[in-house]
Amino acid sequence: MKRLRYHRVRSTSPDYIACLNQQDWPKLEQFVHDEVSHNGERIGISGYRKMLEKDFHEIPDLHFNIRLLISDPPRIASRLQFDCTPKGKFLGLDVEGKRVSFAENVFYEFRSEKIWQVWSVVDKVAIEAQL
Amino acid sequence: MKRLRYHRVRSTSPDYIACLNQQDWPKLEQFVHDEVSHNGERIGISGYRKMLEKDFHEIPDLHFNIRLLISDPPRIASRLQFDCTPKGKFLGLDVEGKRVSFAENVFYEFRSEKIWQVWSVVDKVAIEAQL
Q1: Are B68 and A120 in contact (CB < 8 Å)?
Q2: Is B72 in contact with A72 (Cβ distance < 8 A)?
Q3: Among B8, B28, B9, residue whose Cα is nearest residue B19
Q4: Torsions phi, psi of A23, nearest 5?
Q5: Whether the predicted interface score ipTM is above 0.90
Q6: Which of B70, B71, B120, B127 should we substitute to test contact with A (largest number of A Cβ atoms within 10 Å)?
Q7: Could you give the CA distance from residue A39 to residue A67 in angstroms, rounded to a whole number?
Q8: In CATH, what number is assigned to the domain containing residue A21?
Q9: How many structural domains is chain A composed of?
Q10: Residue B70 touches chain A, beta carbons under 8 Å
């Protein structure tokens, strides 16, 4: 059972990341729980979608790359890598069209086979070092 | 075999964190590989120890709390929580004795049952929001 869940959770993650990269928002509900929380705040799937849409608006060439993926159901952790060009401010920094490279270390907890809790930290220090 | 490694890696982590909290530096070599890398830079165990000693110097009440621990040998991911009082600047911010609360999302990769690669991101954005 544990083994089955391991493979199911692990195989879901690349599909979820592909959904983000395709900005296929109607598909988001296949992966994300209605009552999803982000860093302890329950924002729901509509808030989650808005957050992602805002990210793609601010960073038109945003692309999620999975560097590390570790699975321990009902949780997953991933180190995501970004090489992108935020067009204005990003995390309060004047990036203004400069190409930057940074990571996000993120944990997902699943409930009913969907992402229910997200704890994310973006490496702002790495971005500052490139400006 | 996988199951055995899972339990070994998982049970090591609280002992490693206890070693940090006790600042028991001679014991560090039980947990950390001689050629450890931190965020892609090979700093070795002596550089790793110096980094930790600097952290405790800058934050005298530093204490590592494990919030999440997920195991997928040879890797582990942990969300660490800190409630502490950096005495001066911290991550370039003028914290200057203010109590702050923040997380670190960190991945460890083991080799020969010791920490060999560390990918860490500290939530600087959360600290800024408290200043």
Answers
A1: no
A2: yes
A3: B28
A4: 50, 40
A5: yes
A6: B70
A7: 21
A8: 3.10.450.50
A9: 1
A10: yes
The Cα-based distances of B65 to B3, B41, B105 in angstroms read 25, 25, 12
Report d(CA B43, CA B62) in Å as an integer.
22
Token pair 């590390």 in the structure block, residue: A68
pLDDT tens by residue, A38-58:
999 999 999 999 999 999 999
- Residue B66 to residue A35: CA distance in whole angstroms: 25
Least confident window among A7-16, B52-61, B81-90:
A7-16
Across the interface, of B77, B91, B120, the residue whose CB is closest to A70 is B77
The mean per-residue pLDDT over the stretch B102-111 comes to 97
Nearest neighbour of A77 by CB, restricted to B77, B104, B122: B77
Q: Is B103 touching A (CB cutoff 8 A)?
A: yes
Establish if A13 touches chain B: CB-CB under 8 angstroms: no
**Where residue B2 falls among pLDDT bands split at 50, 70, 90?**
low
Q: In B, which residues are within 8 Å of A105 by CB distance?
A: 77, 105-107, 119-121
Which domain, by its residues, includes B122? 2-130
Instruction: Report how far residue A66's alpha carbon sits from residue A16's, in angstroms, rounded to the nearest whole number.
Output: 11
Task: With CA atoms as reference, report the closest residue to A60 among A85, A92, A83.
Answer: A85
Contact A102, A127 (CB under 8 A): yes
Residue B71: how many other CB atoms lie within 10 Å? 24
